[in-house]
Amino acid sequence: MLGLLVLLAPGVAAQQVPGGIASRRAERTAEGKPLRGTERVELFWGVGSEARNREDDAAAFQRARAELTFPIYPSRSVNIFGAPTLDYLRLQTNRDTMPSRVGEAALGLFAFIALQQAGPFTQVGVFARAGQRSDFDRPQFDDTKFIAAAFARAKVSEAWSIQFGLSYLGGTTDEVAFFRYAPIPTFEATFKPDASLELKLGIPETSINWKPSQWFDFKARYFVPFSVDASISHHPIPQLTITEYFGRTRADFDLTGKRWPKDAKFAYEGWAAGIMIEGTPIPYLALRVYGQLSFATRWKVYRDREENTLEYLKLQPGMMFGLRVEVRF
Fold first, then answer.
1. Sequence-ordered list of residues with C-beta below 8 angstroms from that of 223, at least 6 positions apart, any chain
2. Nearest CA among 272, 273, 321, 266 for reference residue 299
3. Per-residue pLDDT tens digits for 165-203
């Protein structure tokens, strides 16, 4: 029932498989770190074990994902780069009321400007992304979702900095109906007294990164309104990282085929706990192996944007395994 998917194509963006494996490169980039040397190609393949919710029902998934980041205009003060993504999720069930596949095709553009003589302000940035997340049975331009964000960062003291901005989610979230199309103000205050601690207090995200030693690197994040994740990493040697993680996932995909109502969509949500082992045998290559237990997982088909349920599949806890290969230039 489980198979192998191969995807050889470029792509980028923080995404999770059903159960909570995510790349946080987009977060690190948004913090304004130098973009030189960050061109990369990243390929991911994952498979979920059979999970039954009744004697005559079963479910499994396979996922392939490809990401690419590349510079468009790199310089000392201005950095612009592109970030395309291709994602494919194959769903296997005994029911014909679930889609057999969903996926994403998207392109993002980022721009960061370092400010030299602007008072306390040190950086401004903008981000725009267009893409489709659907079953791609009958893709149309109207199904394209647009998101955009802009921010400004200012240094308050040696330990404190603040960042504020505005985000537009373009109908890509349904956890809070108000967030669908209204611009959302964002704010973040960062406290970083030294290299071992970074605390961010803000809306919509609050996080902590505490690394007192190479054997203990703790990260936790809460994103309004319902997302939370945490991880503990260990670095026994510079080329090896072992991470235990826990978190919640949710993702929505439009259903465009003739069999579905006009505004139907597929959604998965759940929780996961797992372990990731990352090795860097050479400076430009990173290999990550994942193993996790997914639980409280739900696959749902909604008939409309108000999330009136058309089909509901509650899964028993199941295992997921994945492999991610990252090549950085």
1. 204, 205
2. 266
3. 998 877 555 444 555 667 888 999 999 999 999 999 998
Torsion of CA 71, 107, 85, 123, to 10 degrees: 50
Identity at 149, one-letter amino acid code: A
Q: How long, in residues, is the chain?
A: 329
Residue 154 and residue 135 in contact, taking contact as beta carbons nearer than 8 Å? no
Entry pTM: 0.79
Q: Which residues pair with 198 in a beta bridge?
A: 209
User: Is the distance from CB of 63 to CB of 89 less than 8 angstroms?
Assistant: yes
DSSP structural state of residue 96? S
Q: Residue 138: which residues within 8 A CB-CB, separation 6 or more?
A: 256, 257, 258
Residue with the bigger pLDDT between 54 and 308: it is: 308
Contacts of range 186-193, beta carbons closer than 8 Å, 24 or more positions apart: 186/149, 186/151, 187/162, 187/163, 188/162, 188/163, 188/164, 189/160, 189/161, 189/162, 189/163, 190/160, 190/161, 190/162, 190/163, 191/159, 191/160, 192/159, 192/161, 193/159
Q: What is the CATH number of domain 25-328?
A: 2.40.160
Q: Domain boundaries in the chain?
A: 25-328
311 closest CA partner among 95, 134, 135, 101: 95
* Residue among 87, 21, 92, 88 at smallest CA distance from 60: 92
Report, as an integer, the average pLDDT of 29-44. Answer: 55
Residue labelled with tokens 């980022």: 110
